[in-house]
Amino acid sequence: MKQSLTAGALAVGAIASAAAASAKDVTIPKGTYLELKSASAFDSEHATRGDTFTATVIRGLWVDGQLAIPSGSTVTGTIKSVRSPRDGAKSGSVGVKFESLSAGGRTYPVDGVLVSLKADERKKILEQQGKITTGRKVDVILIGQGTEADMKVDTLVGISGADRDDLADQWAKSGLGPATVHVSPGTILTMQLAKTATLAATGGSRVDGDRNIYTSAEVVKSLQRALRSRNYYAGEPTGNLDQATRDALASFQLDQRQPATGDADEATVQALGMNTASANSNK
Fold it and tell me: Is the CB of residue 251 less than 8 Å from the CB of residue 268?
C-alpha cells in the first residue's frame, strides 16, 4: 500500500510538466461526465423526434491541469424518441442525445448520452453493466417531471436493444409514471461522453466549482493499485482508464458519498490517499 501511494504522488506530481509540454489540444476520455443546465423548454406532449435543444455546462472541466470546457459552454442535443398519451402511452418519456459542444469560441461534434448521478440509479447501472451481452446497452430515458425545488427530472434505467426503442415502449405501456415529461429551463441534466473528444485547450483561471480530472497513464495506474488494495478493482494496473476501472471508481465514489462519475477527479484521488498538491499548484 505504501508503495502505491508513493507512486501515486509521483505520478500526479508529473501532471504539471506534462500539461506545460502540450497545451494545444486536450483529450477528454470516453465516459467523462458533464453536468448541464437546460436552456430550452421541451415536453413529451409537444416535442417531436428531431427537435433540438440547448444546455449550458454548469462546472468547467479541466483535464490534467488544462481547461478543456469552461463553465457556460453550450451543448446542443437532439430528441430521439417521444412517448406520450397523444400516441396512446400511459407513461410519458423523452429520449435525448447530445451532439455538439461549443467551447472557447469553437464548436465540436460530440457523442453524449443522458445519464443519472442519483446514487440509487448509479447502483442500478453498475449492477446491469455486468450482465450486458453483445449488442445490448444501458439506456437512460427522461421520465416524470422536475420539481421546482431541484429542477431534476427522473430517469429510467434499463437494458434495451441498441437500435430499438424497447425501453421507451415498455415504459409507455406500463402506466408506472406520469403521463407527461416536462423539462423547463434550468433543469439539471447529466451527460456522459460515449466517445473520446479532442478539444483545443482554453485559456482561463480556475473558478469555484470547476472539476479537474486526471487521465495520464501513470496516475490511472496508481489509482488502479489503490482501488485494488481496497478490493474495488480486480484487474492488473495497466494505466488504461477502461470500463472496469471506471466501474471501480464509481463504486468507491458511491461508498464515499461522492457523485459516482467514474472519473478520476480530485476528490476521488485525495480520498484514495494520493497527493494532488503538485498538480493543484499549477492551476
Answer: no
